[in-house]
Inverse folding.
């Protein structure tokens, strides 16, 4: 316990130093500075379209930022469209009607990069002379997932690392302190599950912690599997090939199995995955920084009723979690003038991290602002930044969608059908090998 | 000539219902060539036979044209794409029959076919009989018929998103379905996490929505049977079961064929509710072909493979449809 | 007499059974309505509270005003009505052609028509999208209507219904000199009113609930339809289910009214067919 705490303190210290180092460069990022570095914008009229996959509050913020940008650049007109799901983006790219700016998850981005559908980011738009310069504006590794070769292809509008959310009331009712009694390891979680799970007859009325199973595009299963494999010291994908059929993979699945309570007892859905935590059926859940607001939206009584701590670990001396992102990308088929304005607009929108945090609790992983008072005074920020600092991206493959359904199937087999984890791992590895050979 | 096909209506003679529908008659018999060519052609053009054929084409043409533009051309393109590798993002590349071979050797595709067949016949077997029974009930005198009929029809008009949410909620281990099971002394079922239970659950959901849907189809078929037939049958002393056997059933045959074929096609394309509720899981137990095609095409970006899978789906439903047309002796020959 | 009474008892048992099962059919719909009046945290609460306490009537105006639903409903009306009229008209004629005419290639044409029903929209979507784009119909009402009119279900339905219409009636009309169009519109259509109405209600239902096609080709908010509006309540990580249920309840009203009207016309259709002897 003690060692673990010291380590966490160490990690925070390292992080703090990196912020300070990053600060000078982070601070001079502004459109004006960018213009100084020679990023010349077209002066004639330019019309752009931006599609975003996000929801109400996010689109309100984006509309506002776009309006501000249009005020600064009267020659630019931006058509903004919200609620655009990836299906529509794919169809539009195929038909050549995709907009100049569209949102892409890091998982899909690798595919777009491989097909040259998206444009590499020009460092000059960020006032930098090289890609390394732009990378230095962000926390270490948070842009790994949007980099290919020596090029950067996007920056995140939303960057998440999974942390652990704890329900204060339910913890206190069980005689636990939400902060001090928070689990540090998955073994702790399994122990707490015994205390926090309540039944009436056969009926489970309350759970401690449960991973999410329902919703089988495999999104959540793949996330959890990545986290557990990383924590066990392994890798999911290496050089595009599956490497999860390993000791680490096995450890991941056995740990997973030790945490099962009652997978069927859930009201979570694909489009509302935090339902169980929000309505206080589950005392804990794993989620990113943006989820507090969602939980409060579902159940206003959750306001002030939760605590966020770093995600439990397998080996606390080697902490790891998963980071994933949604990103602004620029269509490779846009005209040269449109591309210039598009990147400038993205730079403008991504240079207001405090606004993104205060308004909709989105983190974007830039260094500078985390040392500002607004960030430091934000509750649980240390937990979020800790998890960001130990986060690693999803397995890098142009077949990520294949991978996540294969992982989901493997997890279903092990958890719901009680198949031997070794067999399931071998089968899944074969399936993925077949999928990438198609 | 073609006028011969207008045979007298077969009244109450159930076994001759087929003769009633469309008499045989040669479809396009040409006149014997005895007059000069031009005159012959002119006469032929003026002939009732040609006028009849021309009107036939004319009535079909507007819709057929629309189908050509918005269905056949896309279908031919899908057929072409099935012979290519195509990721939607870069141009398709011709690979011959490789996609078909890949699918034939893919256990996940086999599973998907199996799941689809299970779902299609699991639902249709019930739909065919239950919806007919329901239609017969609602065709009989019944107090408050209009209200009841509307209530029965409601599930068919619930927006598909809500249909999915409702059933997801019903499938909860402590939801209404299990409460009902408990009431009759049966053990609870884990509808969404037990790979054996999930398909029966989806079949139940489909029956709730589609039995009323096809009930309406049957009802319209029943309403379309002219009263004279029943009156004539009554004179011959046929009523109740007899009338059903000798009047209703034979005259309903085109409707039955419609229901059988359409239900199979509709069920084989089930998609949205499965996508919303399970996304194909657990362990692929609900990954129906339509979902397989969607995931392969738009999530895995393998549109060539998805197109090939859809051609298999087309072949499957087409085989079944042709079989039904033969079985029902659908005799609108051309 | 006792036999009659037993039959009566049996009849009323049957009626009770039908009514009882009607309640079972209805229960999920009642849950939908009940959920539309609950706060978000209680939407999936078990055991079910059928009557929310207190009912959140405010959910309705809130949902309605959250997105421009007046516009979405207007669009849905325009699109559904246009598709229904065009489809019933054209599919009816095509079905009549296949049922009551004989011509060369008819069988093959019929099978070809059926085959268009068998491919799932997922594979036809991109090619159709390209065609609509080349016609310049993206973001237009034509784009929402015309490709959807091209649906073979109605052809098949009308063909099958018209097969059981006695040829003698059609012939009699022709001999009376009604002409081909006159025969169809003045004799055949009124005689098969139940079939025409069934097709209308099905086409309306299908179009009213259609999501994928409008979602793909419309990027202009002023052309969005109700199902797209419903989908907008499904945000990235949370769905306001009470709003979804509220709008869905409202969205079902036109269909229910239509169905009532349809039932009354059903009876009219039968009356006509009796007259026509």
């Amino acid at each position: 316990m003690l060692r673990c705490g010291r380590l966490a303190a160490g990690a925070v210290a390292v992080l703090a130093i990196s912020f300070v180092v990053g600060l000078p460069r982070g601070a001079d990022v502004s459109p004006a500075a960018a213009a100084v570095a020679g990023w010349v914008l077209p002066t004639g009229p330019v019309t752009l379209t931006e599609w975003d996959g996000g929801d109400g509050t996010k689109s309100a913020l984006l509309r506002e930022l776009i309006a501000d940008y249009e005020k600064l650049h009267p020659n630019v007109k931006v058509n903004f469209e919200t609620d655009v799901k990836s299906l529509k983006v794919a169809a539009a790219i195929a038909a050549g009607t995709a907009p100049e700016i569209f949102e892409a998850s890091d998982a899909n981005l690798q595919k777009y990069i491989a097909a040259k559908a998206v444009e590499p980011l020009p460092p000059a738009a960020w006032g930098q002379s090289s890609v390394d310069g732009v990378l230095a504006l962000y926390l270490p590794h948070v842009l790994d997932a949007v980099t290919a070769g020596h090029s950067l292809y996007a920056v995140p509008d939303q960057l998440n690392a999974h942390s652990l959310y704890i329900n204060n009331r339910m913890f206190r009712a069980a005689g636990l302190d939400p902060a001090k009694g928070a689990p540090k390891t998955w073994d702790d979680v399994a122990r707490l599950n015994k205390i926090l799970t309540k039944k009436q007859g056969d009926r489970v009325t309350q759970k401690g912690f449960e991973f999410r199973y329902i919703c089988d595009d495999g999104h959540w299963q793949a996330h959890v599997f990545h986290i557990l494999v990383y924590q066990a010291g392994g890798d999911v994908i290496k050089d595009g090939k599956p490497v999860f059929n390993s000791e680490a993979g096995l450890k991941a699945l056995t740990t997973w199995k030790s945490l099962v309570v009652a997978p069927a007892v859930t009201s979570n859905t694909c489009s509302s995955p935090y339902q169980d935590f929000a309505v206080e059926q589950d005392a804990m859940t794993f989620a990113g920084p943006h989820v507090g607001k969602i939980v409060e939206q579902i159940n206003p009584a959750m306001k002030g009723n939760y605590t966020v701590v770093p995600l439990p670990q397998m080996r606390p001396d080697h902490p790891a979690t998963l980071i994933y992102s949604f990103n602004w990308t620029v269509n490779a088929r846009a005209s040269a003038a449109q591309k210039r304005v598009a990147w400038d607009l993205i730079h403008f929108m991504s240079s207001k991290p405090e606004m993104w945090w205060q308004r909709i609790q989105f983190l974007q992983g830039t260094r500078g602002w985390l040392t500002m008072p607004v960030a430091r005074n934000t509750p649980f920020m240390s937990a979020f930044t800790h998890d960001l600092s130990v986060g690693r991206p999803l397995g890098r493959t142009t077949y990520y969608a294949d991978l996540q359904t294969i992982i989901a199937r493997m997890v279903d087999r092990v958890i719901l059908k009680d198949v031997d984890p070794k067999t399931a791992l071998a089968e899944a590895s074969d399936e993925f090998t077949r999928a990438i050979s198609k | 000539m073609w006028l011969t096909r207008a045979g007298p209506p077969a009244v109450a003679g159930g076994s001759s219902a087929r003769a009633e529908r469309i008499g045989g008659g040669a479809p396009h018999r040409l006149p014997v060539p005895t007059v000069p060519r031009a005159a012959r052609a002119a006469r032929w053009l003026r002939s009732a036979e040609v006028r009849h054929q021309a009107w036939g084409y004319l009535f079909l043409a507007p819709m057929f044209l629309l189908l050509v533009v918005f269905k056949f051309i896309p279908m031919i393109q899908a057929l072409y794409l099935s012979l290519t590798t195509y990721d939607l993002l870069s141009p398709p590349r011709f690979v011959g029959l490789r996609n078909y071979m890949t699918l034939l050797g893919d256990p996940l595709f086999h599973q998907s076919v199996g799941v689809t067949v299970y779902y299609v016949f699991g639902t249709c077997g019930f739909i065919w009989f239950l919806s007919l029974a329901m239609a017969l009930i609602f065709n009989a005198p019944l107090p408050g018929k209009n209200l009841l009929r509307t209530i029965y029809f409601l599930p068919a008009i619930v927006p598909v998103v809500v249909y999915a949410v409702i059933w997801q909620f019903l499938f909860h281990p402590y939801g209404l379905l299990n409460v009902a099971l408990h009431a009759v002394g049966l053990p609870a079922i884990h509808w969404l996490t037990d790979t054996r239970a999930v398909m029966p659950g989806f079949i139940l959901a489909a029956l709730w929505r589609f039995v009323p849907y096809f009930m309406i189809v049957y009802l319209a078929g029943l309403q379309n049977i002219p009263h004279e037939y029943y009156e004539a049958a009554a004179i011959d002393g046929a009523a109740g079961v007899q009338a059903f056997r000798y009047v209703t059933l034979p005259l309903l045959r085109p409707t039955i064929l419609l229901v059988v074929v359409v239900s199979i096609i509709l069920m084989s394309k089930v998609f949205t509710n499965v996508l919303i509720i399970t996304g194909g899981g657990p362990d692929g137990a609900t990954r129906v072909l339509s979902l397989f095609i969607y995931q392969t095409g738009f999530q895995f970006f393998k549109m060539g493979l998805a197109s090939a899978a859809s051609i298999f789906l087309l072949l499957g439903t087409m085989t079944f449809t042709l079989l039904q047309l033969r079985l029902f002796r659908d005799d609108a020959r051309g | 007499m006792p036999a009659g009474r037993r039959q009566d008892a049996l009849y009323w048992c049957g009626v009770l059974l039908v009514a009882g099962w009607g309640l079972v059919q209805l229960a999920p719909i009642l849950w939908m309505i009940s959920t539309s009046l609950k706060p978000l945290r209680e939407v999936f609460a078990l055991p079910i509270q059928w009557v929310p306490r207190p009912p959140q009537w405010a959910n309705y105006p809130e949902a309605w005003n959250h997105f421009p639903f007046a516009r979405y409903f207007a669009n849905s009306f325009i699109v559904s009505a246009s598709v229904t009229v065009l489809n019933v008209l054209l599919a009816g004629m095509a079905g009549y052609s296949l049922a009551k005419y004989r011509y060369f290639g008819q069988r093959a044409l019929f099978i070809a028509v059926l085959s268009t029903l068998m491919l799932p929209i997922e594979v036809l979507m991109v090619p159709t999208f390209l065609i609509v784009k080349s016609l310049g119909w993206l973001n237009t009402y034509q784009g929402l209507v015309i490709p959807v009119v091209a649906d073979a279900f109605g052809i098949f339905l009308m063909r099958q219904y018209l097969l059981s219409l006695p040829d003698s009636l059609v012939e009699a009309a022709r001999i009376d000199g009604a002409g081909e169009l006159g025969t169809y519109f003045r004799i055949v259509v009124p005689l098969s009113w139940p079939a025409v109405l069934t097709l209308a209600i099905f086409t309306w239902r299908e179009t009213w609930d259609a999501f994928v096609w409008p979602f793909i080709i419309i990027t202009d908010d002023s052309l969005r339809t109700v199902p797209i509006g419903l989908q907008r309540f499904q945000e990235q990580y949370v769905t306001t289910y009470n709003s979804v249920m509220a709008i869905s309840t409202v969205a079902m009203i036109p269909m229910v009214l239509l169905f009532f009207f349809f039932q009354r016309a059903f009876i009219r259709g039968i009356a006509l067919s009796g007259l026509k002897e």
Notes: The domain at 2-158+324-381 of chain A is CATH 3.40.190.10 (D-Maltodextrin-Binding Protein; domain 2). The interface with chain C takes residues 49, 51, 53-56, 58, 81, 83-85, 87-88, 91, 94-95, 97, 267, 269, 271-275, 278-279, 290-291, 294, 297-301 of chain A (CB under 8 Å).
